[in-house]
Amino acid sequence: MPEPYPPRIEPYAHGMLDVGDGNRVYWEACGNPAGKPALVLHGGPGSGAGPVWRRLFDPAAYRIVLLDQRGCGRSTPDAADPGTSLAANTTHHLIADIERLRQHLGIGEWLVLGGSWGVTLALAYAEQHPGSVSELVLFSVTGTTRREVEWVTRDMGRIFPEEWARFRDAVPEAEREGSLVDAYARMLADPDPAVRERAAREWCRWEDVHVSTVPGHRPDPRYEDPRFRMRFARLVTHYWRHTAFLEDGTLLRDAGKLSGIPGVLVHGRMDISGPADIAWHLAQAWPDAELVLIGGEGHGLGTSMTSAVVAATDRFRET
């Protein structure tokens, strides 16, 4: 199986794109300026696009474009700041940002690669702008539906009961039987910094738990950074409580709009955070997609998952 490309893939161009509403998003381009255009959509929401994403593409064949979505990474303003409004931070705003960046860079169509939350965004973008997308490579497939949000924030307590009890008990007692994502969003907006920090810390602690289903899992070191914790928790709860600002289930219902777009769906069978039926149902509704289920892998880019994603981008580099 192919390995990721060498780590020294540095940007040859970068910039800050004014997308309106007081937002400027960071973008960078790596690899071959004359190569096949490819766009990376990171997870989270709020993770930002780190250097590891560059290594999923052959830098001699691809013009690799990375984007920090609104409010995170190097984009401004920073959602880690409690005064940063998220009113103009929705899936529809992000889709418009992607199209603006494509036009800014003079790209006709591009391969779109997304992971986790980036899958939800990639599907929403491709269903709205199918003419802008040549192929889709998606791993750790999610649709950010109400059922998925309830699964992660409540039902998975059956699998991690002790850890989930701590996650639940961090919210006020009167709110524990309701929507936990709403309760956390309210705490993250509390005027008391101590309440906000506790909510961010406990949210990210639970995030680390529900992806820890494979041997050798290590806690995500990014959660040790208080600004990253706050940024990540604010953006995830913002998008999850609104089911990605999409009509619930619409991505699966509208999968026919992806007809003619080749795709590869890479998913770990041990991904309890995003069960494999999410990817399977999408593959049934999208005949041009190939589903690759990886035994022994969970949520994110494990060794075999990475190999499968690189194999997919290698396959599409000449098309």
Automatic annotation (TrEMBL):
A Pfam cross-reference name: Abhydrolase_1
Reaction it catalyzes: Release of N-terminal proline from a peptide
InterPro entries: AB_hydrolase_1 (IPR000073), AB_hydrolase_fold (IPR029058), Peptidase_S33 (IPR002410), Pro_iminopeptidase (IPR005944)
Residue span, AB hydrolase-1 domain: 39-299
Top EC class of this enzyme: hydrolase
EC number: 3.4.11.5
Tagged with keyword Protease: yes
Keyword check for DNA repair: no
Gene Ontology terms, MF aspect: aminopeptidase activity
GO cellular component term, pick one: cytoplasm
UniProt KW keywords: Aminopeptidase, Cytoplasm, Hydrolase, Protease
Protein name stated in the entry: Proline iminopeptidase
